Amino acid sequence: MPDVQPDDYLGPTQLTGARGPVARAPRSKEARDPKLAAQLWQKSVELTGADYSRLSG
Fold this sequence. Notes:
The protein is of the alpha+beta class. The protein has one helix spanning 34-48; strands at residues 10-14, 19-24.
């Protein structure tokens, strides 16, 4: 897909997104929520000990 843009989500298009050919697919409201994303990132840091915050300008 030459027209893929940043923040696009590509995934299976059949069986409720579980299989099938890959195409641009919608994301749930939760998947687009920046507050939930920040909470998930923080929990990932806590559980893995991998903190990449120094890499972001």
